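Researcher: Next sequence.
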Amino acid sequence: MKVLVSDSSILIEFSKREILHTMFELEYQFAVPDLLFHEELIDLGSYSRQDLLGFGLRVEALSTDGVATAVAYQAERAALSLVDAFALTLAGIHRWPILTEDRTMRRFAESKSISHLDALWIVDRMLVAGVLPGTQALVALDAMLNDPRCPLPKPELARRIGHLRD
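Model: Next structure:
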């Protein structure tokens, strides 16, 4: 089963829209570094960290060498938080794609030949797999579009909403 490393923004965004549990129904495993799990996944709305573990989230610790790599990544790109650097390192070490909406993380991933995917890619997979009904996806995407703090690109959200309404 393919493993995808998620940053916190994807998990938090999906939790706000109450579709987080749905992504775990896909034929993927999702992983996060332990630092992200303990430091950034504090407010998940109606979900808890325990729920994530129950859904099958993998919480992975970096080795000493991995921590050194993460610190070096952060030193190389100051805009990366240490948590972001841990996620990128976890993805890079295992050659797993990273799920992120963060432009800095995506650019850095590209520079290190780490594959990256985004939230709309996951939404598309959930729709195709039939685990997320179109009506529920429409409600979630519309809420994301109307949320000024949502990191997903507004033009792409509007386009997806248009397709779902057709």
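Model: The CA atoms of residues 110 and 161 lie 28 Å apart. The first helix runs from residue 8 to 16.
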